[in-house]
């Protein structure tokens, strides 16, 4: 299981624990897509700031253009029930504390990277 899939199922498991909705998997995928989008947009934004290029990715159009493929890709990959059940079983077998901590740190890092990119692009 790759790190991206493992990260998804950490978010999925946390959302499952606190959600009372029967369609929590759809919301968990959207929530995971937000974190993934923060990471991608943040990395692009930081790169553009260091290259002194106007940070178009951090405006609303850039965020939609970048975030929409991430959201659609995650829904296509993770929300097919048979695949989701199979991958969740693999996740439960391979779960470890180190990987859980790494996934939580990636979630926090995605937010921090996005905030840094936003600040860098505001200064330019």
TrEMBL record:
The chain crosses the membrane at residues 26-51, 63-80, 101-120. Keywords: Membrane, Transmembrane, Transmembrane helix. The keyword Transmembrane applies. It comes from the Bacteria. This is Uncharacterized protein.
